[in-house]
Amino acid sequence: MIGEFDIYGVLFPPLLIWVFMALLLSMAVRRGLSALGLYRFIWHRPLFDLCLLVMLTGLISLAANRYF
Amino acid sequence: MKPISFIYRFIVTLGAVILAGVVAWQLWIYYMESPWTRDGRVRADIVSLAPDVSGPIVQVFVHDNQFVHTGEALFQIDPARFNLALAQANAALAQASAAEAKAHATMLNAEQNAARYAALSSNATSAISRDDASTQSLAAKAEYSAAQAAYAAAQVDLGVAQLNLRRTTARATVNGVITNFSMQPGDYVGAGSAIMAIVDTDSLYVDGYFEETKLRHIKVGDKATVQLLQGGPQIDGHVQGFAAAIADSERIAAPTLLADVNPTFTWVRLAARIPVRIALDKIPAGVNLVAGMTCTVTILPEKN
């Protein structure tokens, strides 16, 4: 979707919202990975976390463009 | 739990970096390269209607925000003065007609006289009298022509008086909506000064203000979709044309004849916005377009 988000009169570009959603989602995913001990397979944890955020943003944006 | 070897951990992380790079690149192309803009405006041609004659308003037939059709009466200027002018023009025409008849009679008489003198022998009349009669005949003919011309002029004056009377009723020139309109009987309107705006609803279109960097991806005839800020269905359209010029903000209008170019040049700067005109193919039912609304314009990629 290319449009606007209207939050109480202030309009936001959708990408900003997708990044914010991806941030929340990545927090949950990070917690999950940590609990399962999957960070054993990761060399550089902050770098991986950044990549995770970018990928989730892309995923959400793709889903939004496809289904809305 | 035995530790995983460094090489596996490195490969997994590298895979994530590559994947994220590809995703970031795609996002960049989608949001930055593809021709779309959030800066679109619904626009329409506005008729600034001015009365053709001056006078006080006696009747207003329409109200604010009313839809009017071409030819519909909008308001009536007091016709009394123009009725009088018409009567005067009619009288002037009758006068001119009488003057013409008189000149015709004079001409006939002068011609008869001249013919009689011409028929008389040289013993009965002098050459002077004969020439006088012939000159009078020519002069009477010229006067008759002048009277005919005066009659034609009076006819034209009558036409002008009729036209002025007709023009006391102002009519809509387009199908559209009257907007920001306030008029009461008794208001005095002057010929030529605009007093009401009619938004031509047949002319609704969208101007997308595209960054100049995206302009090379857009061609005349490309399909486009318009999404209004208020939501609702997408409106299909196509690119009708580009603005040929925009104002140069780096150049100041100088009092001399020479160019005055702003010497400050910003390091971080923004692309100029070029209006791209989008013709709307079909406005979906229930969508009420208001000129000035904001919309997002997306140019659809060509299907080869």
List keywords for this structure.
heterodimer; A: 68 residues; mainly alpha; two-stranded antiparallel sheet; 9% strand; elongated; B: 304 residues; alpha+beta; six-stranded antiparallel barrel; four-stranded antiparallel β-sheet; 3 helices; 26% strand
List the helices and strands and how they pair.
The complex is a heterodimer of chains A (68) and B (304).
Chain A: E1 5-7, E2 10-12, H1 14-36, H2 45-67
Antiparallel strand pairs in A: 1-2
Helix pairs in contact in A: 1-2
Chain B: H1 6-33, E1 36-43, E2 46-49, E3 55-60, E4 67-68, E5 73-77, H2 80-119, H3 127-166, E6 169-171, E7 176-179, E8 188-189, E9 196-200, E10 205-211, E11 223-228, E12 235-242, E13 251-252, E14 260-261, E15 273-280, E16 294-299
Antiparallel strand pairs in B: 1-10, 1-16, 2-9, 3-5, 3-8, 4-7, 5-6, 7-9, 10-15, 11-12, 11-16, 12-15, 13-14
Describe the structure.
- The complex is a heterodimer of chains A (68) and B (304).
- Chain A contains 2 helices and 2 strands; from the N terminus they run E-E-H-H.
- By secondary structure, chain A is mainly alpha-helical.
- In chain A, strand 1 (5-7) and strand 2 (10-12) form a beta hairpin.
- In chain A, 19% of the residues are buried.
- The mean pLDDT of chain A is 87.
- Chain B is an alpha+beta fold.
- Chain B has 3 helices and 16 strands.
- Chain B has helices spanning 6-33, 80-119, 127-166; strands at 36-43, 46-49, 55-60, 67-68, 73-77, 169-171, 176-179, 188-189, 196-200, 205-211, 223-228, 235-242, 251-252, 260-261, 273-280, 294-299.
- In chain B, the strands form 4 sheets. In chain B, strands 1-10-15-12-11-16 form a 6-stranded antiparallel β-barrel. Chain B has a 4-stranded antiparallel beta sheet with strand order 2-9-7-4, with no helix packed on it. A 4-stranded antiparallel beta sheet of chain B has the order 6-5-3-8, with no helix packed on it.
- In chain B, helix 2 runs antiparallel to helix 3.
- The longest helix of chain B has 40 residues, at 80-119.
- Chain B is elongated, with a radius of gyration of 38 Å.
- The A-B interface holds A 2-4, 11, 13, 15, 37, 40-44, 47-48, 50-52, 54-55, 57-59, 61, 65 and B 1, 3-4, 6, 8-10, 12-13, 16-17, 19-20, 23-24, 26-27, 30-31, 36, 38, 227, 229, 231, 296, 298.
